[in-house]
Design a protein that fits this description.
- The protein is of the alpha/beta class and 323 residues long.
- Helices cover 41% and strands 19% of the residues.
- The chain folds into two domains: 188 residues, Isopropylmalate Dehydrogenase; 125 residues, 3-Layer(aba) Sandwich (Isopropylmalate Dehydrogenase).
- 46% of the residues are buried.
Length: 323
Amino acid sequence: MKIAVLPGDGIGKEVVPIAVDVLRTMLPEAEYVYVDVGHERFTREGKAMTNEDIETIKKCDCILFGAITSPPKKCYRSVILTLRQALDMYANVRPFKSCSISPYKVDFTIYRENCEDLYCGMEDVSDDQVLSTRKITRHASERIARKACGHPGLEMLTIVHKANVLRSCELFRDVCIDIAKKAGVPYEEMLVDAMAYNLIRNPSRFDVIVTTNLFGDILSDEAAALIGGLGLSPSANIGDRYALFEPVHGSAPDIAGKGIANPIAAVLSAKMLLEWSGHRAKAEFVQGAVDRTISNGILTPDMGGKFKTEDVGLSIVKHLESQ
């Protein structure tokens, strides 16, 4: 297996090495191909990522990604958005599961359409107004609905939209309902504002959630608060050929270089990589090592601890090696 490693910017360079240590422990035969992308490279060279970089990445089986700073510059194109579209990774999958210190008891997964909506970059810009086009197609809606309906152990699919106001959401909702019916999957539908309310009011009721790109982006950050923060939240970007695994958090320039970033989200992203590549037993070993590290109180400051990034990583790897 060949894994492209893109640490990116800020704390990505601190947490990705720990995730790689975990993968090396679980997959000693794998090959790791490092690619320098991101805003720090853009500042040095005027390019965040080149076409040659994308071709290098395409020669790998999957990608482990850190974090990217995306400044609001007209000449700067988001690396992660570019990769999602270039590799057609249409499903953003974000699991949320309680740990021993989580404020709520939850276990659900958000499936977010990953290539359309307002993130397509179709904007008409003038001095006095900006018109942003929201693109929702039947094709993309069908793909994400099928992916969500195929979630292992699915008991209830919640389709999130704003069809009472937006015709684009009406299309998304109708397509998802049609796919769920054909798959024989129990489903419910919910307006996005009601969903935001119920995620706080009664989060344990949810199982699998499918929604559009923008709504999924917002709801998944809200959901991260239910399990203890972004430092515990992994994600996957999955297509028919390629997959990219990344922590949900950003580059966090305010704490970069201080050695206090939480590596658990990156490690759990590596766990998702193991699941995707068919190593489910090894993925469970990683989850167990993370759980024991948390139970033993080896925590970074964002989780109320006093330990460094490296300490948490060493604890996880130690538990893996003792399996």
